[in-house]
Specification:
single chain; mainly alpha; Mitochondrial carrier fold; 72% helix; globular
Length: 296
């Protein structure tokens, strides 16, 4: 039987998983944001075609604008999310059988979703800022934006949309983590010992959870959408219910599912890659190699 992963090893695994995952799927996330923030009904293919028609060979760089913001944050976010979920599952497991019930798995996932929001909220706030800037043909630089945001709104400005992030991420985690655990432990997918089995389990659970939670993601995107601040101006903040009511009144129920296709693909791929690499336990292998002097 293999030894349990160390905390440092899990943190390294989570960081690797998050970095690889976001690098693969960031263009999809950019398309999803464009669909959700706009009040004009437009599908995934139409949105991509529009971006390509406007930018041609620069499409790739346009869709990756805001990527570094997400990359810097995701290595911490995924490390926190995966490690907290593992920690809680270990604490909530049956002491006699070692098994984790669906209820306990959901509680562990909810805790992970809540804790990660500390990183997720400012990360996605600036990520969306970069993506919207790209849509407008503007340049985006993370450090000046952080400085500007802090100068105008203070630290609280970094947490615009925090409640919306929690409302999205806790249900997502409650659905995702137990689903992933059940799927990966099936005999068909290798009982958690097969990279591709874990990869597929992460993809299915991630896509399904994201599809279900799309309405909360749409509201969060609208709340965090840049409001055209100028120097010294603080934009008006609206509440979650007010935002949801406005969307329903002006655009109808279908608007709450804007971007569901790229969101399901985006998060499905992200979690497939994340779980595949996380379960490889590369962190512990690297630590062992360093301890043994293999990299000296």
């Amino acid at each position: 039987m293999s030894q349990p992963s160390s905390l440092l090893g899990k943190v390294i695994d989570g960081a690797i998983a998050g970095g690889v995952g976001v690098s693969v799927n960031f263009p999809l996330d950019s398309l999803k944001t464009r669909i959700q923030e706009s009040q004009n009904p437009r599908g995934f293919v139409e949105t991509f075609r529009n971006v390509y028609d406007q930018n041609g060979t620069k499409t790739r760089s346009i869709l990756y604008q805001g990527y570094t913001t997400n990359l810097y944050g995701i290595v911490f976010e995924k490390a926190i999310k995966l490690c907290v979920n593992d920690f809680m599952r270990d604490k909530l497991k049956n002491k006699n059988t070692g098994g984790v019930s669906i209820t306990s798995g959901a509680l562990a996932g909810a805790t992970a979703g809540f804790v990660q929001s500390v990183i997720t909220t400012p990360m996605e706030l600036f990520k969306i800022k970069g993506q919207i800037a790209a849509k407008k043909g503007e340049k985006f630089s993370l450090l000046p934006e952080i400085t500007r945001k802090f100068k105008i709104e203070g630290l609280s400005g970094f947490y615009r949309g925090w409640c919306a992030t929690v409302i999205r991420d806790m249900p997502w985690s409650i659905i995702y983590f137990p689903s992933y655990a059940v799927l990966k432990d099936t005999q068909f997918l290798g009982e958690g010992k097969n990279f591709w089995g874990n990869f597929f389990a992460g993809m299915v659970a991630g896509a399904a959870s994201s599809g279900i939670c799309t309405p909360m993601d749409v509201i969060k995107t609208r709340l965090q959408k840049p409001q055209g601040l100028v120097e010294g101006e603080v934009s008006k903040k609206i509440g979650y219910v007010e935002c949801a009511s406005s969307i329903y009144k002006n655009e109808g129920m279908n608007a709450f599912f804007k971007g569901w296709q790229p969101r399901m693909v985006c998060v499905g791929v992200l979690m497939a890659v994340a779980q595949g690499f996380y379960e490889l336990r590369l962190g512990d292998k690297g630590i062992n190699m360093i301890q043994m002097g293999s990299w000296a």
